[in-house]
Amino acid sequence: MAQERTGVATLKGNPITLVGPELKVGDKAPNFTVNKDLMNQVSLADYAGKVKLISVVPSLDTGVCDAQTRRFNEEAAKLGDNVVVLTISVDLPFAQSRWCGAAGIDKVVTLSDYKTKSFGEAYGVLIKEIQLDMRSIFVIDANDTIQYVEYLGEMTNHPNYEAAVEAVKALV
Questions:
Q1: According to the model, what pLDDT value does residue 1 have?
Q2: What is the tens place of the pLDDT at every residue in 104-152?
Q3: If you compute the radius of gyration of the chain from its CA atoms, what whole number of angstroms results?
């Protein structure tokens, strides 16, 4: 059974339980398997040698998640070819594709944690009560070492976009 952390996060002020470890700067990034579409999966190894900004959102169909993904899509265009921006949610892959098409998102790679919750458990962001991934940001260097982490205490808050982008820029 995976480790559970209570009292560290809320949803609209109500306590929630996060499943998995709390990762820290300097930790080796855990591997994960998520869906690129309904049939094809990818893992951390698929982005080997690149700096990875992983933006985790509960659902693209909510206001803060929408704004977060649009913001990182804008930033991705400026970060260069050695950087990949991944947005991970538990939304189904076809819902992610529909949302990206409607929103004009073309620089961020959307990945779905719906099938196994592998990412959520490995990165300590799976919300036990509702089986969504908690809003968070991870910046991982080309050698798969975590260089920046932001676990949000309240799901409905925005992350620190500037700090995450600066962490990426420091690595390229």
A1: 60
A2: 888 999 999 999 999 999 999 999 999 999 999 999 999 999 999 999 9
A3: 15
pLDDT tens for residues 16-25?
Answer: 999 999 999 9
3-state secondary structure the chain: CCCEEEEEEEECCEEEEEECCCCCCCCECCCCEEECCCCCEEEHHHHCCCEEEEEECCCCCCHHHHHHHHHHHHHHCCCCCCEEEEEEECCCHHHHHHHHHHHCCCCCEEEECCCCCHHHHHHCCEECCCCCECCEEEEECCCCEEEEEEECCECCCCCCHHHHHHHHHCCC
The crossing angle, in degrees rounded to 10, of helices 63-76 and 93-103 is: 70
Dig out the tokens for 69 from the structure: 């993904």
Q: What percent of the chain has pLDDT over 90?
A: 84
100 is catalytic: no
Provide the sign of the torsion angle of the four alpha carbons 38, 44, 46, 47, taken in this order: positive
Phi and psi angles of residue 39, each rounded to the nearest 5 degrees, phi first: -105, -25
Q: Which of 44, 65, 88, 171 is catalytic?
A: 65
Record the tokens describing residue 108, joined without a space. 């961020």
- Distance linking the first and last C-alpha atoms of the chain: 38
| Residue keyed to tokens 């560290």 | 8
